[in-house]
């Protein structure tokens, strides 16, 4: 069997990317984007191999399985909007959040682990395109660094819009994963909500809306994964030939 990747050897320092999805059961596109990320990362694609060698991906593809099973739009079995309970999740009432939060805190307290990214995937019922929400920081340099990943994603994915991406500290969003973990983790961690439209994205002029398909959502997921290659400047590690990269917008 092939030897374990360098970042998985005992005692090695690990860079971790933590991805969660489907905390709101009705936001089905979130699952397709997450599926695209997973399928790409476990594939034999040369970029996927490089990413697995350099990063550890932790993925919780469905944070609200009981709500999904019941066909709820936003709440869990017990009627909670889980994405407002990150600050103090109950092991009994919000078990998925409690488990994920404990794991994130364990990793945060482990000196051998750098939790570099947290991305929570959602779907949006009124906006077009894919876009992100980030946090607001007093430190200007940290604020600028946080913009790098969505800018790179905008170059890789024709349906992702940097102009729709925003950074906020809206009080209504205080209990969300992005906001809570953005306050908990240190300044080398970046926390985002990745939103994707329920219906379409704009290509070219303002009147050229392209309806989303399951495949298009999964492609956005693949492009999210590929963007880590650019972010960590790992391009030189990829064995040639490369698959053609999508055209930038």
UniProtKB/TrEMBL annotation:
Residue span, Peptidase M14 domain: 1-232
Gene Ontology biological process terms, A to Z: proteolysis
Signal peptide segment: none
PANTHER family linked to this entry: CYTOSOLIC CARBOXYPEPTIDASE (PTHR12756), CYTOSOLIC CARBOXYPEPTIDASE 6 (PTHR12756:SF9)
Gene Ontology molecular functions: metallocarboxypeptidase activity; zinc ion binding
Organism of origin: Haliaeetus albicilla
Family matches, as CDD domains: M14_AGBL4_like
Similarity comment: Belongs to the peptidase M14 family.
Protein name: CBPC6 carboxypeptidase
């Amino acid at each position: 069997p092939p030897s374990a990747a360098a970042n998985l050897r005992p005692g090695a320092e690990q860079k971790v990317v933590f991805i969660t999805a489907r905390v709101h059961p009705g936001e089905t596109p979130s699952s397709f984007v997450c599926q695209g990320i997973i399928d790409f990362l476990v594939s034999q694609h040369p970029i996927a191999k490089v990413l697995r060698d350099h990063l550890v991906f932790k993925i919780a593809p469905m944070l609200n399985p009981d709500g999904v099973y019941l066909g709820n739009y936003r709440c869990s079995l017990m009627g909670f909007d889980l994405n407002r309970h990150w600050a103090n999740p109950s092991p009994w009432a919000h078990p998925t959040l409690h488990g994920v939060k404990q794991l994130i805190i364990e990793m945060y307290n482990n000196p051998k682990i750098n939790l570099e990214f947290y991305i929570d995937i959602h779907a949006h019922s009124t906006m077009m395109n894919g876009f992100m929400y980030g946090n607001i920081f007093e430190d200007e340099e940290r604020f600028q660094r946080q913009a790098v990943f969505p800018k790179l994603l905008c170059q890789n994915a024709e349906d992702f819009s940097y102009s729709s991406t925003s950074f906020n500290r809206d009080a209504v969003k205080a209990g969300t994963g992005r906001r809570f973990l953005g306050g908990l983790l240190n300044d080398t961690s970046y926390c985002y909500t990745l939103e994707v439209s329920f219906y379409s994205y704009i290509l070219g002029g303002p009147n050229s809306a392209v309806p989303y398909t399951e495949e298009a959502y999964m492609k956005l997921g693949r492009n999210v994964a590929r963007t880590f290659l650019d972010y960590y400047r790992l391009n030189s590690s990829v064995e040639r030939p490369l698959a053609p990269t999508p055209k930038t917008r």
